[in-house]
Specification:
Number of strands: 16
Helix content: 10-25%
Shape: globular
Radius of gyration: 21 Å
Amino acid sequence: MRVTGPFTVESLSPHRVLSTADDDWDGSVSEQEAQQEQDFATMILENLRKAGVQNTYRGERIVFDRLDPFPGKMIVARGEFTDASGESRRVAVTIGPEHGTVGKDQIREAAKEAMKGAGTDVLLVCGFAFDGVVSEEVKQYGALTVLPTRMNPDLTMDELLKKTGAGNLFMVFGEPDLEIKETGDSLVVELHGVDVYDPTTGDVRSGSTDDIACWFIDTNYNEESFFLRHAYFTGADEPYDKLKKVLRAEIDEAAWSSLSSTVSYPFKRPETGKIAVKVINHYGDEVLKVYEV
């Protein structure tokens, strides 16, 4: 039974594509074309300054005291904000590509630049999508806190942005809190929740599975593409119960209940030596983490 209307499938290339400012291909870059290249970063900074950075909890939000453009190679803005203890913290911002994913190379170069001179307390890495290895890369810089900050796709759509307003535009989403167990020759993943980062204090705490809408496993991750091989749906109050009723069909209760699980089915040890787990919350924010097994 069809349960959706017509839809399209879209994806982001794993390779960064640098677009040319010469839109009309006449061999020269006009002032207007050059301005268009700057518009994306300018628009992101204007909304970042207004919306701040938040997690999934109300009140835990970075509100900038100032945020000014900065002519760096990777750093596009520097500013300050006051944390929950009343101390002023210095922040730097790098923005990922408009059409592409943020990789570890960008984070590495931005972190090096951020630590030069007077130094920086927090580096915000803003992007629409992130490579799976980013979660490990952000832990490499000691006292510098690196925050992967997911930008709402509405930022690229003027009409949707007007409806979205200033909320939910820049989100910090933590790492999956899970355990990988061995059962004979097979592996089982048990999801406990998602670690939640409070940007106002720097504290990390564990959240429950009620905050998770669904989670997926690629049981043989090849470091290039995420293939969804296991899918599970969680959350409080049986959020998918309405869908079951809409289907108006005879439901195999055992099969249906197996979809709502925080423990995966057993699977063989991957030939690549790696698995990838993707977790999505009720706001549509997602995090992908790679595990060696």
